[in-house]
Specification:
Blueprint (H helix, E strand, L loop, with lengths): L12 H29 L5 H28 L2 E5 L4 E5 L30 H20 L8 H23 L4 H5 L7 H19 L4 H5 L6 H20 L7 H29 L4 H15 L8 H21 L6 H5 L6 H19 L26 H28 L9 H6 L1 H5 L19
Antiparallel strand pairs: 1-2
């Protein structure tokens, strides 16, 4: 089924309603979803700071997005890849990208290849914004508990402008990787691989938490963490269900595959924890949930139900192995690089599983919105006779990893010339009270004097 614009009346109220709803689901994954997850997963002294930085990032990305970053991610071509491969960045000026909130939604560079969309440009801008916003928020999970708030304030809009927009345009906006045939249904590469390797790079540059915090960093509230995780899981219906850009059968496929893979990954991680440690871990279950969500994201509309289950198993298995045998201080780089929530494992490794898995398991009979089997948009994986798709997926992953590591390194080094990238040791000892003058709970912190009645 291909959506066609109606002469003089292109607005499809069903499509418009679904896109706005799906976008709001994705927004809820950030605020309050990840704000709660982070706020509950850290030490009590960092609960306010961790949650508040999520709200700041959400706001800062929105302003940058509507002013210039959307156009850089989805506008008309600006910078070209040498050798005639295509564009890798859109023009930031709205007048050159046909960016008009009141007009029918288009992606200028991909307009010739895409069916007409049944809603206005404002809906498209909002939908793409929530994806852009959650990406630095995921990155934040690697550097909690020591990154300076001032540095974060500067970093977020700059990272969105110079790092996120390049990946988004290259794969989604009609750029060179998408033109080559690299598949990323809803952000396995653009969002999760990008945030994981940028986060890991940032963690290496900013440095570790205090030794006492690395040794003991117990969650202050597992129930709050679970509440945030639940919002993340259900919000993902909009993440993968909204990317057909229309309320059709593909949206249902994306949603069902998402939850199937996630449930499989959660159960797989729990089983592995029980086998290895004798007990099911709540945090382990959350990690398994996240890996399933991440891995199915690049594949959600391209694989069938069996493919979703296969991805769910490997989405948990490989990150569990890297987390338990390469992470947690077991290797030189994990001792040196303090990735607080293991973003490199739950998002980076899982995104590679999903991206390469898409190249293997993409079923050409699945995609209907972009066309039927044999159409130029049909995705065919190695299992169905197209090994070249695996090569393309590796190309895409390599570009995202290299660009994010180099770009984030340069960006943080420049920011570090003007502000401290991390809090001083005294602030690191105190936490929220020193940074914001506020605490998460109306109970007394370690070492604080309890007032005597009558004082």
């Amino acid at each position: 089924m291909i959506v066609q614009a109606l002469p003089g009346n292109w607005l499809d109220t069903g499509d418009n309603a679904w896109q706005l709803t799906a976008a709001t689901f994705v927004g809820i994954m950030s605020v309050p979803g990840l704000a709660l997850l982070y706020g509950g997963a850290v030490k009590k002294k960092w609960a306010v700071n961790s949650a508040f930085m999520v709200f700041y990032a959400f706001s800062a990305v929105l302003i940058a997005w509507v002013l210039w970053a959307y156009n850089m991610s989805f506008g008309k071509p600006w910078f070209q890849v040498p050798g005639g491969l295509g564009a890798w960045l859109g023009h930031p000026c709205p007048t050159t990208s046909a960016y008009n909130m009141e007009k029918q939604a288009i992606i200028p560079s991909a307009a010739a290849a895409m069916p007409s969309l049944g809603y206005g440009q404002a809906t498209m801008v909002y939908f793409q914004f929530v994806f852009a916003a959650i990406t630095p928020i995921i990155l934040l999970g690697a550097i909690l508990g020591r990154v300076s708030f001032k540095a974060w304030v500067i970093f977020v809009p700059l990272w969105t402008t110079f790092i996120y927009s390049v990946g988004a345009y290259s794969i989604w906006g009609g750029g060179w990787l998408g033109s080559m045939g690299v598949l990323d249904y809803s952000g396995g590469y653009v969002i999760h691989l990008s945030s994981a390797f940028s986060g890991f790079t940032a963690a290496a540059i900013i440095g570790p938490r205090l030794p006492r915090d690395r040794e003991s960093f117990q969650p202050n509230s597992l129930l709050i963490t679970l509440a945030g995780a639940g919002l993340l899981w259900l919000g993902w219906s909009g993440f993968n269900g909204g990317d057909p850009f229309t309320a059709n059968a593909d949206a249902g496929v994306g949603v069902l595959n998402t939850h199937t893979a996630t449930a499989t990954a959660l159960l797989t991680w729990v089983v592995l924890d029980v086998i290895a440690y004798g007990k099911p871990s709540v945090l382990g279950a959350v990690n398994g949930m996240i890996t399933g969500l991440v891995a199915i994201t690049p594949a959600a509309g391209y694989v069938n139900g069996i493919g979703a289950i296969i991805l769910g198993v490997f989405a948990a298995l490989l990150p569990w192995l890297t987390w338990n045998f390469l992470g947690q201080g077991k290797t030189w780089f994990s001792r040196k690089v303090d990735d607080v929530l293991g973003v490199i494992h739950t998002h980076g490794v899982a995104a590679l599983v999903g991206g390469i898995g898409t190249g293997i398991l993409a079923d050409p009979s699945m995609v209907e919105w972009y066309g039927t089997k044999g159409d130029q948009f049909a995705a065919t994986g190695w299992w169905y006779g197209n090994f070249h798709q695996v090569i393309l997926q590796l190309y895409g992953a390599a570009f995202i990893i290299v660009y994010n590591v180099i770009g984030t390194f340069i960006l943080l080094k420049i920011i570090g010339l003007f502000v401290n990238l991390r809090f001083d040791d005294e602030t690191l000892l105190i936490g929220d009270d020193a940074v914001h003058g506020e605490e998460a709970y109306a109970i007394y912190s370690d070492g604080q004097k309890i007032p005597v009645l009558g004082d």
